[in-house]
Amino acid sequence: MGKKIDLMATGMNLRAIRMRKGYRGRDIAEMMGVSPGSVSHWESGDFLPCTMHLVRLADLYAVPVDSLIIRRIE
Question: Which whole-number Å values give the CA distances from 66 to 27, 33, 63, 70, in the listed order?
């Protein structure tokens, strides 16, 4: 069985990467064509961005897609 995604840890990771790259949440929302609330929900662990948005985030942050997602250790 595969490991489950840890939404809270993934959200914290998304926020940390964004901040390290020097973007505000509002900047990412504008670049991606989503609401600032969506970015906030992703970063608070309320829900995971869809695959299309994960790919776009990885492009914007210049990181591999799999580095955005944190899996639970079970």
Answer: 22, 22, 8, 8
